[in-house]
Every structure is written in structure tokens, then in C-alpha cells.
Amino acid sequence: MTGSGGQQGPVLGARRYLVSFVGLGVLVALLAVANLCLGSVHVSVAQLADALFGGDRTQTYAQVIWDIRLPRLICAALLGAGLALAGLLLQTFFNNPIAGPYVLGISSGAKLAVALLLVSIGGLGVVTSWMSVAAATLGSLVVTLLVLLVSRRAQAPNTLIVAGVMVGYVCGAITDFVVTFANDASIVNLRNWSLGSFSGSSWEDVRTVFVVVVLASLLVFLLSKPMGAYQLGEAYAQSVGVNVMRLRVAIIVLSSVLAACVTAFAGPISFVGIAVPHVVRRLLGTSKPLVVVPGTFLGGAAFCLLCDLIARTVFAPTELSVSTVTAILGAPVVMSVLLGRQRGRA
Amino acid sequence: MKGARAGSDDALLTTVNLSTGYDGVCVVGSVDLEVRRGQIVTLIGPNGAGKSTVLKTLAGQLAALGGVAYLDGRRLDKLTVGEQALLRAMLLTDRPRTELLTCEDVVQMGRHPHTGRMGVLGEADFAVVEDAMRLLDVCDLRNCDFMRISDGQRQRVLLARAVCQDPQLLILDEPTSYLDIRYQIELLGVLRHLAKERGLGIIMSLHELSLARQVSDWLVCIKDGAVMAQGSPTQIVTCEVIDRLFDLEPGTFDPLTGNICLPVGHAGTKASHGRASLGPCGAEERSCDVGLQHKE
């Protein structure tokens, strides 16, 4: 599909990585500026610079930027990065390019756990962001283990996906059930949140997200070497000295934490986990985790910034759910992966 | 021929009464064998006899049900995977599916036990990778996608990967499958080179009896979940042993040519065929030796 893969030597490869990373970095920066400037209150670049680096925060635009857009921007970027990395981890784990937290029902499991939390003790008004992250992590771990159990029984890669989708539906149904019988106050919260959106991110959220996502991402990066060996399968990974059991546990825990963190703050967001690692691998022309992991981090951030920008501005003042946008942009990528695989097999 | 098995000072791999199988059910039992440095040991036997099961156990992929295996003088089950990886590399029958990895990337994965925390290769590593790729004649495939080469090419790339792991013991499950006759002979030449020049111990399974006889220093016959016989190729590749190993009609296997006579309609000619091919067979053997470039 890349075409150039046939001729590229190590030097060309390194240059390609460099160009790709610089490109992704610039993209993230540009999208960040666009996210800060565009919206119902238009902010010029000069005003933006003034608001960010100047001392005066009493202006309306400065308040919009500091109180609304900047925390939302940081959340969207970090959560997008985390979600994309969760997808990459699951694809490595299941050796299946269309595995991802949403497809495998992991996001739905996290959503159910958070819904239960909100409904059970939400009325008391003591749900902190850490509590919802913890509940979501528990939910996503349970679903991951469930899907893992099914995939152990049935080896075919498609069974895995079907199992994940089914588990996702069951979790969704139970969530609906819970919502139906919840009191009005919790429902309002649930409705907004369960559609998937970065809106309403506070600086407190930013702090939690930053700690969880950055820590987990660093750990994922440190797993680059064994993940690379794992690409040849469990047996070959073990033969070069990878402690396969430990790696598998690490991958499951990290992907669950990352997917859960996203779900706890922004609701279930579809397709980011599949589409971003795929595009990044094509961009870099390799699937070596040492470069794909940081690439996916940047790519996920850029993708979610773009999707959030579209969700906020295209039909303003009506705001789309971010999942609507990620699905429209991400689903074609998944289709192309499937078709590409068909071609590769022929 | 290093057939005589006196003294085991340079024993690399030893098993004592090893038994192994899946889910607690024994598939192969009482395996006593030894691989010494510079020696090629080949497991032969019918399909499903448990050759792969034995190799998987020696490879650490499968826990032994009983008995002990010693690798480089230490109990295999007491070594960490990291320690094992420094001593032993393998080529399995699994066909890995990769995405966007070049053949060179795959070969480089063999350096995993020798690189640091992030797996970045140094100058020395690149030299070892280069050497392994040259040995297996896969330099031309360097930048090809691993999924877009033939099965035989993949086999050689995976073996180059195992060689650049720089092991003392090499475990190969059916290394000649997917290879055409020329590469089969070249591969066995490479194995002899690794054993005789670099002092590696090699244990593998082979289907081709004629190749097994040519390349091996020691043959182990596995049948019905046990070691039926073991010895030097001249001791093992005889009518009696081979016919019994594969449940053939007596006289079906011709030890001199390595040929199998089809039983139907050939019953009358079998015995005479064996005798008649005495002459040409010797010549054939010599011509094969020329093909094995690295043979001593």
C-alpha cells in the first residue's frame, strides 16, 4: 500500500520518521491554535497570544480561552492520544489490525461502570474524577478479560470482533436499563456524557487526565521492545527472551486504564483506536513500536483535536458529539484495513 | 563422523527421562538424549509421533511433565527466559503474520536478547545481522515486506533471525519445509557450517530421511510416544529400523538410495531393486556431498 516500502533503506527510513514526526508535531500545534481561536467567540491569533502570555485575564476572550477552550483542548489531545495508544496495544495483543477499545466493547464496559457509579452515589454529589476513572478502569478490565476468555476458546480473528461487539451491546443495554430507572438529576449528567464529548472539561479534569495518560503512555513506550518481538507471535517472542505472561498482563492493564480514562471523561469514542494506529503505521512505513508508539500518541492527539474542532464549529451553535465525527472520519479507514487485508491474502 | 557418544564434557543439552505432552496428557515419554557442541542431532519418525512436542519442550514453549532437561549444564526450568534466549534460538513451524515489517526488521528481532532497554541496535549488532543475512542468502530481500515473499524465503529469513540471535543451541522444527531441493541442500550446508565452524549444537526434526542421514551426526527415532532407537546415521538408516519406525512392509525402504518402493505391483522386484542399486547409490551419495558446500 505504501509502495515505497520496497526500496527504502535505513537512512531513508530515518528521514521518513523525522519528517513524519515533525509533520505530526506541526499538525498538533496548528490544530491547537485553531481550537483556541475558533468558536462562538472568535479570538484572533494576536488576542490568543495576549491571553496566553500577557498578564491580563479579565478580557472576555482571555476567560473563554483559559476557562473553557484550553482545558478542553488539553483533554481532547491527551484523551485522543490515550485512546489511540489503547487501540495500538489491543492490536498488538490480539494480532488483529481492527481490534480497538470501542469495537471490543471495552469502552462500553467502562461506560456501564461509570453509569452505575453515577446512578448509585451520584445523587449524593461526591463523584470525583478519580472515582469515575477507577470505576471505568474496573469496567474495562472486566470486559477485556471477558473478551479474552472468548478469544481463547475461538481462535478465528473475526470471532474476537463479533464477541467484542456483542459484549458491547450487552453493556449498552444494561446501561440503558440503569439510565431508565435513574432519577432525573443523574440522567441529565449521563445523557451529555454518554454521547461522547470533550465539553465541560475543567482544570481538575486536566490534572487527572494528564497524570493518567502521560504516565500510562510512558509505560507503553517502555514496552516498545517486547511489543516489537511480540509481533512475530508468542512463541518467537518467548524465544528471544520476552516474558510473555508479564507482557500480556502489562498490555491488558495499560490498554484498560487508557480506554477507561477516556470513557470516564469524554464517554465512549469510536474508531480512534483503530484508525489512528493504522494511519500512523502507513505514514511511517513500519510497524516497529519504537516509532509507532510516539507516532500514535501524536496522531491520536491531532485526530481528536480535529474531530473536536469539527464537532464544535461546523454546525455551531449546535454541538455534535465527538463520536459522530470520529465515526465519519474513522469508519472509512477501518473499511480500507479490511479490504487491504483481503487483497493481501489473495 | 562424531557418532560415538563417549564423554559428555561438551554436552550442551541433555535430557534425562524427559516426558512431555499437552494438558497433563503425556505425548512422549522417557526421552534421553544429548546434543553436544558442534553436533547435529535429528529427530525422525512418523507424523504425530511427538517430534514437535519434544522440540517445543526443549524450546521452553511447553513445560515438561516429568524428567529433567539441562541446557549448558543448568536445569532448563531454573533458567529465566532471558537467560535461555542467550543460549538458544529456534525456528518453529508457526508462520508469523506481520504488517509493514521488512525482512531486515524481522532478522534484527533476533538481536533482542543482546540489545538494551529500548532495543536499539548498535554497530556490532548490525554486523551480526549482516553476517546472518549473508549466510542465509537473504541480503536481496532486505527491504522486502516480510508478508510478500515466498514461504521458502520466509523460512530463510526466520532462520537468519535465529542465527543472529547468536545462540549456542539451535532448535529447528522442520527447517526444510517450504524449501525447494536446492535450498534444502544449501540450508543443510549452512547448518553443517554452523555446527562445525562455529561450534553450535543443533537439534531438529526432518521428514526427508536421505537429508537427515547426510547432515546429522546422530539420529533419534521417535515413535508411539517414545524413543524407539537412536544412533549414528549408519546404525539407524537400515531397512529394519526404518521399516519398523514407519510401519512399512519389510523391505519397502531402501537404505542405500533412501528410496521408498511403492508396494503395489512391486512386491516381486523389491529385493532385487535393493541389490541392483548398490552401485549407482554410492555415486549419488558423493554427488550430494558436493552440494553440501560447507561439509568438512
Index terms:
heterodimer; A: 346 residues; mainly alpha; ABC transporter involved in vitamin B12 uptake, BtuC; 77% helix; globular; disordered N terminus; B: 296 residues; alpha/beta; 6-stranded mixed β-sheet; 4-stranded antiparallel β-sheet; 12 strands; 35% helix; disordered C terminus
Helicity level of chain B, as a percent range? 25-40%
**Oligomer status:** heterodimer
Order of secondary-structure elements of chain A: HHHHHHHHHHHHHH
- Fraction in helix of chain A: over 70%
- Give me the CATH fold name of chain A: ABC transporter involved in vitamin B12 uptake, BtuC
Rounded mean pLDDT of chain B is 83
The greatest interface here is: A-B, 33 and 37 residues
Instruction: Note poorly predicted spans of chain B.
Output: 1-7, 266-296
CATH architecture of chain A: Orthogonal Bundle
Computed CA radius of gyration of chain A, to the nearest angstrom: 20 Å
Number of strands of chain A: 0
State the helix count of chain B: 11
Shape of chain A: globular
SSE series of chain B: EEEHEEHEHHHEHEHEEHHEEHH
- What gross morphology of chain B would you assign? globular
C-alpha Rg of chain B (nearest Å): 20 Å
Short characterization:
The complex is a heterodimer of chains A (346) and B (296). Chain A has 346 residues and is mainly α. Chain A contains 14 helices and no strands.
Protein described:
The complex is a heterodimer of chains A (about 350) and B (about 300). Chain A is built from 14 helices and no strands. Chain A is mostly helical. Chain A has a single domain (about 5-345), classed as ABC transporter involved in vitamin B12 uptake, BtuC (Orthogonal Bundle). In chain A, α3 (about 60-95) packs across α12 (about 270-285) and α4 (about 105-120) packs antiparallel against α7. The longest helix of chain A is centred in the N-terminal third of the chain and has 35 residues, at about 60-95. Chain A starts with 9 loop residues before the first helix and ends with a helix. Mean pLDDT of chain A is about 85; it is low at about 1-10. By secondary structure, chain B is an alpha/beta fold. Chain B has a domain at about 100-165. Chain B is built from 11 helices and 12 strands. Chain B has helices spanning about 50-60, 80-85, 105-110, 125-135, 150-165, 180-195, 210-215, 235, 240-245, 270-275, 280-290, and strands at about 10-20, 25-35, 40-45, 65-70, 75, 90, 170-175, 200-205, 220-225, 225-230, 255, 260. In chain B, the strands form 3 sheets. Chain B has a 6-stranded mixed beta sheet with strand order 6-7-8-3-9-10, sandwiched between helices. In chain B, a hairpin with a 2-residue loop joins β4 and β5 (about 75). In chain B, α4 (about 125-135) crosses α5. The N and C termini of chain B lie close together (about 10 Å). At the A-B interface, α9 and α10 of A face α2 and β6 of B.
